[in-house]
């Protein structure tokens, strides 16, 4: 009887998880193109919505929090402070929502052929990231109008802040994308998380306000600021708002101008949270993907 050597073949359905995505770069590009082309399909304004939605959101928060509640009095250049944090929160919300719906939205492909299922959440995240770039461009232009001068430090903080958010969303996206196939309530849970995200980081207020109100519970402040999204938002604030001459020369100096106390430990803690999220997200995704085709 002829012996067949199976060593050159891969067992279907087994792989290295998210690492296999690098071997399917061509498919990843196709999925990214598909997600970006369908996002504003049959839309009159098209890509212009990438500017309209954050602009309306910014105006509402600026009028309510800045003018009515008077935060602009204690925060110089408050519009830039608000906008620099808001664009990063929008990145988190957009990418997490897209990743959660990625498997369900591509049910036809998932049912018919085998390919690393992680391609779908990653393609959704990258596709949503491309729609974040126009907001980042507007932020840079507005910052220049305020007198911002870019430096290596500010550029590094911007890149590091985006990297933290994208890695954090990758772990959460894998987790909720898998759950959303079996339990469609996962998408509703993500909607709640996206709502909380806007208020759980120092965008509509400052970290100094939280620090002052947690004087008797300092551990609570450290837990709160160790949120990867909060750490990334502070990096954006220091990259754009904190580098403005009018902010540094303000008298008295804003209480939130410097880094939060022990911020280095908060950054380390946020990296730990991201690593744990990535591991849990990948494990849950690998376990759930066995029944994706049946559940869809």
From TrEMBL:
The chain crosses the membrane at residues 44-68, 80-99, 119-146, 152-179, 263-285. InterPro entries: ABC2_TM, ABC2_TM_bact-type. It is found in: Cell inner membrane; Cell membrane. It is a multi-pass membrane protein. Keywords: Cell inner membrane, Cell membrane, Membrane, Transmembrane, Transmembrane helix, Transport. Belongs to the ABC-2 integral membrane protein family. This is Transport permease protein.
